[in-house]
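User: My instructor asked us to take a sequence, write out its structure as tokens, and then describe one feature of it. I'm not sure where to start. Here is the sequence I was given:
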Amino acid sequence: MPRVQFTYEQVKTKGRAPCARYQHAACYFQTDSRRLLIVHGGRNDDIYNEMKDCALNDLHLLELGMLEWQRVVIFGSLCEQRWAHQMSANGT
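Assistant: Let's start with the prediction itself. The structure tokens for your sequence are:
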């Protein structure tokens, strides 16, 4: 069986990155002109302990072509705070 080797490196991004988190949902989405990593929700223990049983419900995009973070501002009804959830992209 062939052996596969991976290497990892930390990349420098522009913009304001989301706070540290775990048990968030993330997915990849591509259009004709953009490649995006979408990150939603999750849990940050510092925020959780301070707010008493609080999950995150923010939404962030990482534009992979420029390595630039963007926070999505949502108007209207917000989805509930959540962690340990799943997300998928539908469409192109």
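For the description part of your assignment, you could build on this observation: The CA atoms of residues 8 and 16 lie 22 Å apart. Try explaining in your own words what that tells you about the chain.
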